[in-house]
Predict the structure of Helix-turn-helix.
Amino acid sequence: MKERDLIEEVEMFRRGRPSAQRAYDLLRDGYINAADIPAEFPDSYEGRVAYERDYLSGQIVEGVQSFMEERGLNQQEVARRMGLTEGRVSQILSGEQNLTLRTLASLAAALEGHFHICFGEGITPPWKQHPEPRSTEEDALRAKAHAVGRHPR
C-alpha cells in the first residue's frame, strides 16, 4: 500500500465505521490504538447483546433483500404475498424492527425461501486477538508514514 493511501485509510477509519476485520488489521499494523476502536465492538455483556441483535438483524435483512433481487421481487409483491401493506414490509426490511419468528416464517413462505441459521463461536473483538508478526516491508512503510508526521500515535 502506498504511503498516501495508508494515510487516507487511517483518516477514513477515524471518521467512519470500520468492519471488525479492518479495525483488527489497522490495530495489528500499529496504525491505530485500541482506544481508537469505536464502541461498535463491545466488550461488555450488554454491549455484546446489542451487537449480536444488530448483526443478526443486518444478516436477515441483507439475505432477504439479496434473495428478492435475485428473483426480481419488489416490496409491493412481497406485501401482496404476505397480505400486508407495502409500508409494513418496508418496516420489516428496514432492520429496525424486532422481528418475531412468526414474521420471519411468513416472510420465508411469501418468498418461497428458507432461513438457514448457523450458530458457532463468537467473534473475538479485534483488540483481544493476537497480532500476527509484521514483515519488514510493513515496518518500513510504518516508519515512512511516521516520518512525514501523519502516523497516528
Remarks:
- Helices lie at 3-15, 20-28, 45-70, 75-82, 86-92, 101-111, 136-147.
